[in-house]
Structure formats: C-alpha cells, structure tokens
C-alpha cells in the first residue's frame, strides 16, 4: 500500500472499523471460550445436585385404611386386592396429591383425579400416577415405599 | 425528548406511571430488607406465623412489603401499556429494550417467589408447579428449574433469587432505562402513603393448613385456570413466554403490525384478568366450580394491625405452642386444656382443626371469627372431622347413613300418605330435600329434628331431649368433672368474669346409651324400652292428693313425658350398651344410601347366640379390616389380648366377640372391657317343623309399646315450626295420642330372600305393632274438600325388650293381638273331639268393619295396604288355621308337656297320634 493511501481519511476509517469489528469478534469469542466451561460447570453442578436428592422413605402402617391415604410423598390405596403405593406427585404439574375423594385420588391444584389403579379419571393430567415399590416391614407388619 | 417528558395516561405532579412503579419497587425492596430479619428461609412458614402472632410492627412492615409489591405489578403493567400506547419504544437502544423485555419475566419471578416464601400449603404446591413447569422447557428446562427453584424442597435458592438476583437485576434494568437511580420523591411518598394506609388494615393471610382450597396469588389464577383446561402445560408456559416475546418484538415490527400486536396484547390482558376473576371467585376445592370469597383467614385478613390484644397473656410462652407443625394462637390463651382424650389432644391437633377460627392472631374477636364453639356438626364436618388428614372416608359415610338422611322415615311416611307406590320410594330420600307435600310437611313439623344434620348449638352433653349434632351426637361425652367445670364456666360467664375454659368434653369411642337416648326415646321408644320404661299417656292421680311420681316406678324425662317401670331388656340388665351390638359400620353406614334400617343391620342374635350344631365364623386379628383393627387398638381393654374374633353372618367382624380355640364365645363390653359369657341358643329354638320360621324376637320379645288410636290432623290456620326451614310456618300438623299400651307384639311374616326355587321364599316370623290404623285427611286448605284415606297398617319392629323367658304357647297361638285380630276375647269352644274358635273384639269397629286395633279379620285375609314395606305380611288364612289348631291344644296342655313338645316337633304327626280326649279345631266350611 502506498504511503499516500494510508494517510487517506477514508481508508483510515475503514481500517479503524475493521480493527474495531475484529476486536469485537475476538472479545466475543474470548467471552464464549471463557464462559463455556463455567456454564458447563454450572449445568453439571445443577444436574448432580438434582440427581443426588435421596428418595424419601415413607413408612406405611399395617392398618392403613381402605381407599386412598395420603402419607406425604406417597399415596397409598388399599382395596380388595391389597395395598398399592403411588408417588403423590401429580403427573400434571407436580402438585402433592393430599386427599382421596370417593375412591379416587384428587389433586388440589387443578382437579386431576385418578382411579385406584393410578390411571387418570379426569384431567388435566394425561399420565398415570407413578407406582412405588412396596417393601414389607417385618417389624411393624406394614411396608416401606421409596418416593423420588 | 427525555423519557419523562413523554405524553402519558397519568401525568401528575407526583410523576409518571413509571415513577410510581419504580417507587413501589423501591418501597418493596426497603421493606423487604426489614422483614428479612424475622424471616427464616429454613422455617419460612413457622417464622411468618410467629411474626403474625407476636409482632404487630413486623406485621405492618410485612404488609407494606406485600402491598408495595402488589401495587408494583399493576403500575408496571400500566406503565408498559402507557408507553406502548404512545409508541415510545424507539427511544431506547436495542440492548436496553431487550433487557426491558427480560425485566418482565424477572418481575413476575419476584412476585411469584415472594409468594413461594410464605411456605404455606398454597406456596408449597405453587413451588412444585413452577419447578415442574420450568423443568418441562425443552433442553434447558431441568437446569433452569434446579437453578431457580432448587429441588423444590428447600426455599434457600428461591430466597436468594427473590432477595438478591432478580431484585438487583430488575433494579439495574430500571435505572438503566429510567436514567435515574432514586425514585422521584413525590411518587415515593405517594405510594408510601397508599401502601401504609392499606397495610394498617388489610393483611395478607397465611394458609392455616386446614382450609381445603389451594390457590396461587391473584395474578397467577388466570394461568391456573388455563392449566386446568390444558393437558399440555408447556403450551400455557409457551403462551406466556410468547406474550413477553411479542412485547419485545413490537420495537422491530412495522407500524401496522405493531399496532395489531398492541391491540392484541390489550385484549390478552383483559381476557387474562377475566380468567383471574374466575379463578378467584368461582373456583373452590380441587379447582371445582364453587363461589368463594377472598376474606378467609388464609386470604386477606381485615383488622387494625395494632389492635390491642388484651386477652393475650402478658408474657407469651416461648416457644409458641405448636399444633399441626406450626404455631397456633388459640393455644396461647387456651393452654392446658384437658379431657379430650388421647386421640384429639390439643397439643397435637390444636383447636382450629375442629373449631375453626383464625390461628394467626392473639386478638380474641379476630381469633374467634368463623369459629364454632360447638364443633362436630354435620354441616361442616367435611372441613373439620372429615378433613384429609383426619377422617376423610368416614364423614361421607355418615352423610349417606340413615341417621343423616332419614331415608326410611321419609319413605314410610310418604307411603302412608299415598305419595309413593307400594311402600318403596322411587329414590332414597333426604331430610334436607323434603318438599311441601302433605307427607313432607308432616315430617318437617313433627319428625325432622331427629337426624344428624340437625345442628347442636348449645354447649353441654346430649341430654334426654338432645337432637342432632353430627359427629358430636355420638362421639362427644361429658365426664362429671367436665360437666361441673362447664356449669362453673357458664355461671362465671353470666357474671362476666369467665376465664378461658380448661376442661373439654371427650371426643372418643366411649359412646354411652345417653348419646342415643334423645332421638331413640321417640317413635319406637327403643331407648326407653331397652331400659324397661313404658310411656304413660295419662299418669294416674291419687284420689286425695296431687299425683307424685314414685322414683322407683316412674320417671319423668326432660321433655316432661312420664314413663312407668316395666321389664328391661335382658342385655341391658347384663350391662350391654347399644354399641355392644350396633357396630360402627352399622350406625355410620358403609356409604350405601338405604331406605330402611333393616338393610343397615349387620348383627343378628344368632351371630353371638349360635344355634345348636353351628359354630361362630371367626377371623384372626391380622385378618381384621383396617377400621376394626384401629378401633380395637383404640379400645385398650384390660386383660390378655385377643386374637380370634367372631364374624357375623353379614360378614361384619365383631371385635367384641372373642372366640377361643374350643369355639366358646365371650362378649366384651366395649366401653369397659368387662367380659361376659355368651350362651348359645337352646335346642328348642330350632327344633321342630312348627317353629322353623321363627325369629328369635318372635318368642323372646316381652312387650312392645302400642299406640293404636293416635290421631293426626291439619289446622290450616295455626302456626307450627318447620324443623327443616328453621322457621315458623302457617298451617300446622297436630298429633293427639291415644292411650299407650305395653303388650306382647303381634306376629307376622317377613320375606327374607327368594330361594333358588322361585315359588318358595325364605320367610321368618317377626314382631309387629300397629303402625297406622286411622283415617288421614290430606286436605290442607281451610274449608276445603276432605282428602281422606283410611289406613290399616302394621309395622315390623324390633322393640329391644328381649327377655330370657320366651312367650308361652298361648301368648301367640291363642292371643288375638298376637295373630293380628286386635284386643278381645278369643275362645276355643270345644264340643267333643272338635271345637271352634270364636273371637269377640274389644275395640269398636272402624269404617272398614274391622276392630279399630286389628290388622286382619278373624280367620280372614288382610286387604289393601297392610304395611309400608312390601316384604312383610300378616298371616294368611291357612297360617292362622295352623296357628289356632296348635293353640287349641295349648288351651289344654302346658307348654312343657310331652304332648306340646311332640306337637312342636311335628304337629301333623302329633294330631295323628292324639289321644281320645283330644279335640282339634274345626273350621267353617
């Protein structure tokens, strides 16, 4: 480039603009490069924190009544064919189901109700209740369920 | 042009809408710093409850924080609308505009997170919903949900974001676009004045853990309504995000499109506001339709914040008394209450779970607002006794039981009045739904107080004239000590010097006969029959002195009725209470709606007194149903625990019938645990063809009260009290009683079941009394045409006058009342080896030609409507002849004689083998 052209105000402006754009791109790239590992660490920490939550052990007494009983994070149904346990977390939006009405479990938040077998009776829930495995408790004659 | 010079909806000396919104934000932030001191995020609910109970200044500051936040939201919305309307979005740089767009969801987050920090039942559910909804966002949702809400169990992430993250970011965005740091002074003081004025009187509530309605904050109710209808929550979440995106996009749209978006956003706002209104006022429990208000204890509480609490103790207890896992104000004044029993201890349940009221105040008037001094009535039993954590399955059963519906009473009454066909109601009836027909008004005035739905309004035990009371009708009992304390309290209250009462009646399974007495000493009088009292219609007066009742032979009830001593039931003499036979499932029902108490009955005589050759069915303790097991555990009887229990034929487990290895049964008195041996039925009870159909009561019922000539009339000009309406009405049904008689009951036949052979039916012979033998004029208009119907009806009864001694042969076989002919002379006129029966009635004849107290003609078939139930009937002519044929022998031979014992075993064979001197009955051709 001739000395004359480097002193041209227009080309000086173009140079300055390109330098500024380059710096901006480099700054942004550096920001992403530095921020990405921290963002990754954040997401990893959040996921691990979520996963490390211990399931809650719920004691179910031997004389749990007929019909639905709400025992914190577990929903227990005793019927003709024995005792079943479900997570009390409503499949709609996670509210805690805390009551049974006439042999159905009813969510207090938006009114979803579920049959004794956990299937949806009325919406807006579309998925059934999550079944919990019951472990017999020989000491009390009842059971233990682990609710996530 | 500087932003604050823009034309605006509201331009006052105090500033623009933006100034006001910023002022509200600042006040909320500053007051938030103050309330952060008593607030503990690890125990949010408890710390707030303590604040409400003990710290009026703290309540004021909390209210200011709340109201400034509530005002900030509509002010911000109006500010946004204001600027969109005047199209000033181009006056800020793109970056600033985009950050303003971010401020909208952040502001929503601040509001919602503030609600979550209440940590009450509403907030905990809201936390779960928000965490779940955020988690559903594709790709980044889980991380975002964990970042903002943690694991939706602890509140510390929410607390930090509410207090710091979102507040600081929003504040920076506000000062960036407003280009001023501190709010305008005039706007600040204006908002402060309004906020403080609201805060001094209106306090946001806190869910008491008892109210069944769960709702989010008012501005979120529109979302809840949409979430109720949508099966895809992400659509609703996306819709909300879309609205924010549209606001941000307005800046980049051409003018026309921007205008359409602006108008659309305004429409969306109005629709959303309407949905919020629906959610606030038209949605109740489980988000079902139902009108609700916003002024319950967990919503908005109205009252001067600094109201003096003269009734609170000068020094509050530390720590505050807890119930149901939270502080409860009731227990500060009502400390040390005894007498309730172990299952309903105040330190576990508090007071409000049964009595209602406001638990988060120490001001007496406010605390008692909405409180029921008398708890347990059926009207609110679902909210109290039947709440989700207590007895949710029992209350619906009781509501459907006969003692609540009066279904049997109503069906029978309508049948007598001719308002249903053949004694069966087309659908089971309910006392609350009684109409205005003659039958129903008759019940409304004369009978409709004897049901569980009748309110108990007075403190005190269920006396001899008690009515209703819901759960308290049976389960509330006063010991002598508690009753004395109540009388002292009432006396002190009359003088204006009463302290908070310290003794509470027991709420327990200890149900004595006195609980049943009030209602069951009416109608069939079984409560009084059981104890051996018969009502006297006209107490005799002494010839010379005014009549004085003798305490040993007469009894005057609280309603002034006079009873004379006759034979008590043998079970009563042995110490059995009503509940020793009548189980919980019988009395409270099993949820089935019935129209007769015969169908509710689950225990019969032979379940304890087994017939020869049979054994009691048994069940072990482990096999008991959960309710029986719990009742057994609660009873705590002394002595060694039992493992095997009898089972009634109905399948009902009888926890007070203990059966040992050899099959011997022992009955336990439920209230005391005392044991009684149970005798099996004797061989004579089931031996012989002649008595094969007899029920136990047919022989062992000693007497039943009869009132055959009572009269019911209607006076259209008189006034009466309508128990259902709770008011006086014009037009009165009047009852005049005839003489009451205590005699051995009449016998009749009941069809128990149809056997496999359709022609044969399983029948039993049971006890009956005259139900209605009368003319009923159903005309209810003064001076109108009579609308008369004659009834000759007998009713099946269980008089509860069982005796060990059975009736004699002739008391059935040669007794005109037993056979249904009415009182009179029934004689066997013998002529050589035959004889004829002759009957001469004692009562005058009625219009239909039969004696006034008869059921059927002598040796005739009953005609017309004979009973209100279609499964019962009097004896047929053939049956009467067989009865009287045996009765003829009873006039000669003693019941224990060999002749009569042979006759019982096989009458036809005995007739064949009769001696020369025997006469047999002959009949008119």
Could you characterize what this model shows?
The complex is a heterodimer of chains A (148) and B (925). Helices cover 32% and strands 29% of the residues of chain A. Chain A is α+β, with helices and mostly antiparallel strands and 148 residues long. Chain A has 2 domains: 52 residues; 89 residues, Rieske Iron-sulfur Protein (3-layer Sandwich). In chain A, strands 2-3-4-9 form a 4-stranded antiparallel sheet, with no helix packed on it. Chain A has a 4-stranded antiparallel sheet with strand order 5-6-7-8, with no helix packed on it. In chain A, strands 1-11-10 form a 3-stranded antiparallel sheet, with no helix packed on it. In chain A, strand 7 and strand 8 form a beta hairpin. The radius of gyration of chain A is 30 Å and the shape is elongated. Chain B is α+β, with helices and mostly antiparallel strands. Chain B contains 36 helices and 25 strands. The longest helix of chain B is centred in the N-terminal third of the chain and has 30 residues. Chains A and B meet through helix 2 and strand 5 of A and helix 5, helix 6, helix 9 and helix 29 of B.
Compact summary:
Chain A has 148 residues and is an alpha+beta fold. Chain A contains 2 helices and 11 strands.
Key terms:
heterodimer; A: 148 residues; alpha+beta; Rieske Iron-sulfur Protein; four-stranded antiparallel sheet; B: 925 residues; five-stranded antiparallel sheet; 25 strands; 14% strand
Question: In terms of topology, how is this protein built?
Answer:
The complex is a heterodimer of chains A (148) and B (925).
Chain A: H1 3-6, H2 9-51, E1 56-60, E2 67-71, E3 74-79, E4 82-87, E5 99-101, E6 104-106, E7 113-114, E8 120-122, E9 131-132, E10 134-136, E11 143-147
Antiparallel strand pairs in A: 1-11, 2-3, 3-4, 4-9, 5-6, 6-7, 7-8, 10-11
Chain B: H1 17-35, H2 44-54, H3 56-85, H4 94-116, H5 121-135, H6 141-149, H7 156-178, H8 185-201, E1 202-204, H9 221-229, H10 233-249, H11 255-281, E2 300-302, E3 322-323, E4 326-327, H12 330-333, H13 346-349, H14 352-355, H15 364-367, H16 394-400, H17 402-405, H18 407-416, H19 438-446, H20 472-475, E5 476-477, H21 480-494, E6 506-507, H22 513-520, H23 526-531, E7 533-536, E8 554-556, E9 562-565, H24 570-573, H25 578-581, H26 584-588, H27 597-600, H28 605-608, E10 617-620, H29 626-635, E11 644-647, E12 653-659, E13 665-668, E14 675-677, H30 683-686, H31 696-700, E15 704-706, E16 711-722, E17 727-736, E18 741-743, E19 746-754, E20 761-777, E21 788-796, H32 809-813, H33 816-819, E22 824-831, E23 834-841, E24 872-873, H34 877-890, H35 898-905, H36 907-912, E25 920-921
Helix pairs in contact in B: 1-3, 1-7, 1-8, 3-8, 4-7, 4-10, 5-6, 9-11, 10-11
């Amino acid at each position: 480039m001739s000395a004359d052209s480097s002193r041209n105000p227009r080309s000086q402006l173009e140079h300055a603009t390109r330098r500024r754009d380059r710096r901006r791109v480099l700054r942004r790239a550096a920001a992403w490069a530095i921020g990405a590992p921290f963002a990754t660490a954040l997401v990893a920490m959040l996921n691990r924190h979520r996963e490390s939550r211990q399931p809650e052990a719920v004691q179910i007494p031997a004389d749990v009544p007929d019909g639905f009983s709400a025992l914190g994070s577990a929903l227990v149904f005793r019927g003709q064919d024995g005792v079943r346990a479900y997570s009390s977390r409503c499949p709609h939006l996670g509210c805690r189901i805390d009551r049974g009405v006439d042999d159905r479990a009813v969510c207090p938040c938006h009114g979803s109700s579920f049959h004794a077998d956990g299937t949806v009776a009325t919406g807006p829930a579309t998925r059934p209740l999550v079944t919990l495995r019951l472990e017999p408790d020989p000491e009390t004659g009842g059971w233990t369920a682990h609710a996530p | 042009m500087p932003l604050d010079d823009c034309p605006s909806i509201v331009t006052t000396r105090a500033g623009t809408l933006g100034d006001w919104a910023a002022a509200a934000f600042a006040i909320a932030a500053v007051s938030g710093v103050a309330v952060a001191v008593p607030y503990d995020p690890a125990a949010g609910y408890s710390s707030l409850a303590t604040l409400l109970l003990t710290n009026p200044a703290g309540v004021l500051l909390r209210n200011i924080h709340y109201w400034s936040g509530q005002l900030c939201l509509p002010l911000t919305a109006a500010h946004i609308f204001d600027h969109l309307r005047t199209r000033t979005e181009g006056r800020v740089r793109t970056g600033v505009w985009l950050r303003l767009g971010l401020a909208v969801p952040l502001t929503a987050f601040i509001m919602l997170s503030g609600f979550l920090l209440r940590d009450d039942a509403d907030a905990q559910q809201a936390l779960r919903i928000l965490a779940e909804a955020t988690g559903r966002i594709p790709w980044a949702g889980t991380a975002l949900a964990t970042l903002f809400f943690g694991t939706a169990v602890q509140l510390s992430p929410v607390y930090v974001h509410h207090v710091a993250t979102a507040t600081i970011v929003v504040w920076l965005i506000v000062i960036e676009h407003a280009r001023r740091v501190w709010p305008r002074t005039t706007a600040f003081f204006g908002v402060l004045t309004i906020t403080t004025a609201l805060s001094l009187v209106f306090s946001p509530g806190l869910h008491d853990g008892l109210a069944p309605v769960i709702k989010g904050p008012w501005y979120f109710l529109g979302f809840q309504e949409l979430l109720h209808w949508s099966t895809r929550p992400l659509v609703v979440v996306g819709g909300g995000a879309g609205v924010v995106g549209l606001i941000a996009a307005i800046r980049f749209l051409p003018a026309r499109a921007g205008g359409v978006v602006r108008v659309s956003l305004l429409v969306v706002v109005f629709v959303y506001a309407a949905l919020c209104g629906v959610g606030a006022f038209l949605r109740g429990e489980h988000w079902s339709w139902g009108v609700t208000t916003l002024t319950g204890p967990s919503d908005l509480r109205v009252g001067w914040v600094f109201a003096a609490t003269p009734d609170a103790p000068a020094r509050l207890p530390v720590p505050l008394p807890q119930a149901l896992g939270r502080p409860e104000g009731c227990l500060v004044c009502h400390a040390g209450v005894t007498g309730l029993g172990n299952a309903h201890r105040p330190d576990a349940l508090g007071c409000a779970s049964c009595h209602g009221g406001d638990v988060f105040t120490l001001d007496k008037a406010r605390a008692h607002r909405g409180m029921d001094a008398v708890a347990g009535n059926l009207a609110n039993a679902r909210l109290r006794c039947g709440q989700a954590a207590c007895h949710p399955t029992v209350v619906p059963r009781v509501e459907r039981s006969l003692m609540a519906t009066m279904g049997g009473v109503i069906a029978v009454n309508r049948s007598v009045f001719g308002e249903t066909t053949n004694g069966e109601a087309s659908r089971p009836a309910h006392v609350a739904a009684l109409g205005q027909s003659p039958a129903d008004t008759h019940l409304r005035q004369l009978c409709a107080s004897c049901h569980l739905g009748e309110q108990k309004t007075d403190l005190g035990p269920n006396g001899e004239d008690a009515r209703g009371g819901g759960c308290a009708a049976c389960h509330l009992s006063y010991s002598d000590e508690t009753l004395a304390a109540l009388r002292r309290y009432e006396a002190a209250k009359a003088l204006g010097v009463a302290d908070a009462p310290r003794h509470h009646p027991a709420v327990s399974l200890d149900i004595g006969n006195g609980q049943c007495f009030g209602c069951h000493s009416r109608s069939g009088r079984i409560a009084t029959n059981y104890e051996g009292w018969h009502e006297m219609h006209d107490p005799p007066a002494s010839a010379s002195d005014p009549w004085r009742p003798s305490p040993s032979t007469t009894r005057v009830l609280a309603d002034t009725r006079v009873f004379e001593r006759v034979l008590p039931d043998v079970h009563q003499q042995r110490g059995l209470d009503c509940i020793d036979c009548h189980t919980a499932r019988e009395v409270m029902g099993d949820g089935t709606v019935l129209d007769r108490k015969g169908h509710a009955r689950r225990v019969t005589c032979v379940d304890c007194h087994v017939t020869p050759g049979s054994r009691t069915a048994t069940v072990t303790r482990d096999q008991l149903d959960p309710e029986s097991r719990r009742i057994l555990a609660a009873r705590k009887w002394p002595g060694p625990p039992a493992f095997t229990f009898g089972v009634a034929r109905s399948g009902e487990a009888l926890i007070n019938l203990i059966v040992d290895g050899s099959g011997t049964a022992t009955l336990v008195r439920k209230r005391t645990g005392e044991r009684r041996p149970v005798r099996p039925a004797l061989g004579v009870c089931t031996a012989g063809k002649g008595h094969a159909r007899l029920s136990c009561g047919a022989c062992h019922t000693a007497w039943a009260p009869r009132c055959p000539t009572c009269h019911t009339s209607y006076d259209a000009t008189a006034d009466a009290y309508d128990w259902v309406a709770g008011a006086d009405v014009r037009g009165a049904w009047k009852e005049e009683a005839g003489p009451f008689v205590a005699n051995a009951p009449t016998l009749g036949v009941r069809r128990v079941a149809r056997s496999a052979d359709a022609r044969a039916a399983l029948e039993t012979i049971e006890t009956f009394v005259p139900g209605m033998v009368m003319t009923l004029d159903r005309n209810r208009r003064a001076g109108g045409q009579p609308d008369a119907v004659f009834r000759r009806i007998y009713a099946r009864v269980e008089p509860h006058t069982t005796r060990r001694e059975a009736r004699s042969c002739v008391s059935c076989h040669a007794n005109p009342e037993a056979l249904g002919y009415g009182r009179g002379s029934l004689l066997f006129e013998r002529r050589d080896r035959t004889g004829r029966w002759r009957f001469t009635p004692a009562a005058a004849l009625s219009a239909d030609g039969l004696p006034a107290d008869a059921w059927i003609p002598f040796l005739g078939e009953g005609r017309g409507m004979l009973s209100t139930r279609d499964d019962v009937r009097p004896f047929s002519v053939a049956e009467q002849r067989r009865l009287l044929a045996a009765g003829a022998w009873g006039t000669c031979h003693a019941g224990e004689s060999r002749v009569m014992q042979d006759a019982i075993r096989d009458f036809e064979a005995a007739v064949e083998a009769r001696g020369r001197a025997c006469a047999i009955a002959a009949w008119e051709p």
